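Components:
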Amino acid sequence: MTNLQLNKEGKLKHFLSIEGLSKESLTEILDTAESFSSMSEQRVKKVPLLRGKTIVILFFENSTRTRTTFELAATRLSADVLTMNISTSATSKGESLLDTIRNLEAMHVDMFVVRHAISGAGHFIAQNAAPHISVINAGDGQHAHPTQAMLDMFTIRQYKHDFKELKVAIIGDILHSRVARSQIQALNTLGTKEVRVIAPKTLLPAHVESLGVKAFNSIEEGLAGVDVIIMLRLQKERMTSALLPTEREYFKCFGLTEKRLKLAKSNAIVMHPGPINRGVEIESCIADGPQSVILQQVGNGIAVRMAIMSLTLQSNIEAL
Amino acid sequence: MTDTYFNIQALLTKLEIELNSIIQARGLNKPLMIGIHSGGAWIAEQLHQRLDIKEPLGLIDISFYRDDFSQIGMHPQVKPSQLPHHLEGRDIILIDDVFYTGRTIRAALNEIFDYGRPNQVVLGVLIERDGRQVPLQPDCTGCTVTMPAGQRIKLTGPSPLGIHIQSFSTEKIST
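Structure:
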């Protein structure tokens, strides 16, 4: 089966999910991002790499961090950026997704960065867009959020250097989390020693072990001896049945408290893709504490997205 | 093929003498030496020692500033540039191994100016060859050579440093 994400030469053309990408591809993204991260020290935080390219940021779902870091990443690469606010666009007048894409294509754009509530929206656009266009998935339904996973991998590598000896715990609403799915795939592809998921049974997908993780229903057991703790938000907007008694009850059983943090390794880092709900999944003093790298994640998001944008757009050189 | 015509130590000595006199003539104040990755950085390491420059050696990788992204794409393994945060008002000695089309120097100057506005920039290269495509030229050279367009000079290193002449058929000249 051909991988939609790669071109004929095996180069990254679209970035839709971690699934199907090799360790080498992921490492190339992380290495490229490392070069871009030093750019934040420059007086002029801009390189001319993508001058003349037009990137459309097409968000059918709300977002602050992802959208703004994509915009900054694109402008720092000197691309022209068009952010479509779907609530005020023709989509709300009943235009189909494909018609929206065709119209934007007619404006000679080079890339779509897409967030959509329906799983597979990015794949659909990649299959139907003109051949020179690259598509980046910025989150599709409950399926994947690969750029978030890559910036998390970048942050882990920054602090822990090598994945081989690491134990990583992902805690929270695994069932609804596209971030968790992409993180698990990336961690396993990069050769992480042990990936754990910790959640109440109602928030774990059936047969979660088949993703290559160890499942825990007790946060105390799951946190023992881990190097990296990734907290997830409760995605109440995606919960359609009574999966939890109350938020307070959830915090009591699965919230990250100072006492529980001590069960992990003393140099463990605490991560969260945001937005954080203080007092629901994480105690405020931990989110702001010395082991938290939550704000570093946000900053790293720019460098990682710059790397993914430039690597995917270079695959089109042959096609032009 | 390796060309024994080039004596690297002799070229370095000539470049060192020319740089020394331009440092005096132009009154370079606390000059900052910057080598262009990778060959230029190796040459700069040698000159940094020979000229006894006190400021730490800077390193620049111009891959993100090249003008050929739309023809040949990203360069693999781009090294982060190591430059002081502020180049504002500094006197800079920029070093590269081979001056050919001039495009590398154009890209390097653009990157340097993104860190700040230097007071002056002096360009030193080990070998200047013909084939210039932009109106730039080095201030100091180890030697100047004329070569057929289908040949290219490649520096290997860092130790030992070696100069090789390669023949190539592609038209994508970007040194």
